[in-house]
DNA sequence: TTGATTGTCTAGCAGTGCTAGGATCGAATC
DNA sequence: GATTCGATCCTAGCACTGCTAGACAATCAA
């Protein structure tokens, strides 16, 4: 059985290598540069090997997205836990979210811009995605205010952050003044 | 000179046909289906004709985007002008914006998701884009509140709308509860 | 009727995601 | 230790993409 186990380990290791390489390549040169050929060359295997791990390119994007979701959740929780009081907690969360999007544009794209074949807001939504939303809900739910559903509030606040993140990165919003926009969002939307 | 004029007219007409056909095809089957071959076939010309009007596919997307920007500006102004008081004006604007995005997903993608080769938030930004932002600013500037720059407020409110529009359409947010989200945004962000 | 200038098309390039089928290698059996 | 046999991997190729060079035909001025 040891031989089989070793093979399984090696296979899992290669799968991690594929995802990590795809992510690296995407961050370096954008997702357009992540072609199956280039990816295969980088991991030093032939193209068809990719298809023995994933159904196609879309599933590779999905794998990067799930990895990113876990990191985003961790970043958000970490920022929230280091802040005092609801108001500062929400502000720290917002900054951490936008910072993650700015520092990992390709991962953020995989999560929210590209089609990674993932189900959102459904029962069969992968756990990391649900957990990322949960991480937002933990800090945002407590500032929803009376009569406002915490989930609905979180969705709306999240949408605002997402809009700032994408429009800024796409050059639709001037990159300065990120901080005052965050202040505005937090001061007005959150009930502390 | 009349012959030249006729030719120029016919050429301009064909250019409109290209843009309209690209838009129609994109709304019907998504931008992925808008290939140069299919587009050429639909307008009953060969592929290279497209390149005598536009530098490439990206420029065609850009043309659709500009058309959409003008319509979006008109829709927003129309909704705002038919509402009484700042609060209702902002709410009507928000609904009109989200409605436009939902009814014209391909155009909205051309504007804000895809690369149409357009410059945003700069001096050489095309007029329709500037005007669309101006349309938002007209109604949103008056509810920015004391000490908040109207432009900055408009950017932030716009980002929130954009986030709601994209996340909803991509299936990241459940499509029901659009109205309460709008209410929340308007009630909290706008100072009336 | 020429000659030149437009305008348009056919054919092709390099690249894409993905896959069928054959070669190769290693583990288990005799 | 030789031999089967199944898993693993690669070569080669398909149909498609955006884009372009060069041939061809239609139109105009002389």
Highlighted features:
homodimer, mainly alpha, Arc Repressor Mutant, subunit A, Tetracycline Repressor, domain 2, 9 helices
Describe the 3D structure:
Chains A, B: GO terms for molecular function: DNA-binding transcription factor activity; transcription cis-regulatory region binding. Chains A, B: Residues 12-72 form the HTH tetR-type domain. Chains A, B: This is TetR family transcriptional regulator. Chains A, B: Keywords: DNA-binding, Transcription, Transcription regulation. Chains A, B: Residues 35-54 bind DNA. The structure is a homodimer of 192-residue chains. By secondary structure, chain A is an all-alpha fold. Chain A has two domains: 1-53, Arc Repressor Mutant, subunit A; 58-189, Tetracycline Repressor, domain 2. In chain A, 73% of the residues lie in helices and 0% in strands. Chain A has nine helices and no strands. The longest helix of chain A is centred in the first third of the chain and has 28 residues, at 2-29. The radius of gyration of chain A is 19 Å and the shape is elongated. The N and C termini of chain A lie far apart (59 Å). The mean pLDDT of chain A is 95. The interface between A and B is medium-sized, with 32 and 32 residues. Chain A binds a DNA duplex (30 and 30 nucleotides) through residues 3, 7, 35-37, 45-52, 56-57.
List the helices and strands and how they pair.
Two copies of one chain form a homodimer.
Chain A: H1 2-29, H2 36-42, H3 47-53, H4 57-81, H5 85-103, H6 105-113, H7 127-140, H8 150-169, H9 178-189
The structure holds a DNA duplex (30 and 30 nucleotides).
